Amino acid sequence: MPYLDDPLIIFTDLDGSLLDHHDYSWQPAQPWLDKLSAAQVPLILTTSKTSAEVAELQSALNLTQQPFIAENGAIIHLPPDWRDEAAVPFHISGAGYPEIRQILVALRQRYDFEFRGFGDVTARQVALWTGLTEEEAALAMQRDASEPLLWFGNDLDFARLKKCLMREGLSLTRGGRFWHVMGTGAGKGQAVQWLSDRYQQKRGQPVISMGLGDGPNDLSMLEAVNYAVVIKGHHEHEMPLQREDVAHVFRTDAPGPHGWSQGLNHFITLR
Ligand SMILES: [Mg+2]
């Protein structure tokens, strides 16, 4: 089990993990946030939200010096002092948003597929779909590398859409409300691996990674880290992990930020 002063990096999902599923508060996690910050352990927000949505939260959590992973891993946002080589704030896996939109629109014209993506509608419509305010919906629409869509057609057409997207190097991932179209090689797990390698290079020594998440879209992240905390979710999905090092997997009995703290208590030894 790692000590707090080991070369740790921690990846965390937001909704239902660090943030309460109902009121989005992280109060119960504050004592651990303070400890991690004092020990200079990087905490990397790893979420399906867009960069625009994460930015505000990241500064509320005092984490603006850290990278973050947005749009389910399709985009990695790098802090200013990481940008020396390429001088770009982003690492994008797979296709960018304009290309994804172009492919979707062309396929819809050709096959009469019945779907609507965020790029087809107004902020008011996205607000109605999601329960966000119109201002929040506008932030959720500032996309870099993935497109959420609602499917209104039949199963046969859906299978055909999936096949067509695959030929274009795109895949469909199921989220809470929407299907997400993004690059086939993109995902939370791949992004976590990419960043872990970068930390290792930067520091010139192996890092110990930990991941915390509550949903099916966190599974690839929980497979990719050294220590996995499966937070009790507000859903019926099983959270099966393929890994054999069962002592490195902890399943909490509390949800949200209470479970989040439970996970860190379980794995990290203070001295
Ligand atoms: Mg979640």
UniProtKB/TrEMBL annotation:
<dbReference type="Pfam" id="PF05116">
    <property type="entry name" value="S6PP"/>
</dbReference>
<dbReference type="InterPro" id="IPR006379">
    <property type="entry name" value="HAD-SF_hydro_IIB"/>
</dbReference>
<keyword id="KW-0479">Metal-binding</keyword>
<dbReference type="Pfam" id="PF08282">
    <property type="entry name" value="Hydrolase_3"/>
</dbReference>
<keyword id="KW-0460">Magnesium</keyword>
<protein>
    <submittedName>
        <fullName>Mannosyl-3-phosphoglycerate phosphatase-related protein</fullName>
        <ecNumber>3.1.3.70</ecNumber>
    </submittedName>
</protein>
<feature type="domain" description="Sucrose phosphatase-like">
    <location>
        <begin position="175"/>
        <end position="267"/>
    </location>
</feature>
<dbReference type="GO" id="GO:0050531">
    <property type="term" value="F:mannosyl-3-phosphoglycerate phosphatase activity"/>
</dbReference>
<dbReference type="InterPro" id="IPR006381">
    <property type="entry name" value="HAD-SF-IIB-MPGP"/>
</dbReference>
<keyword id="KW-0378">Hydrolase</keyword>
<dbReference type="InterPro" id="IPR006380">
    <property type="entry name" value="SPP-like_dom"/>
</dbReference>
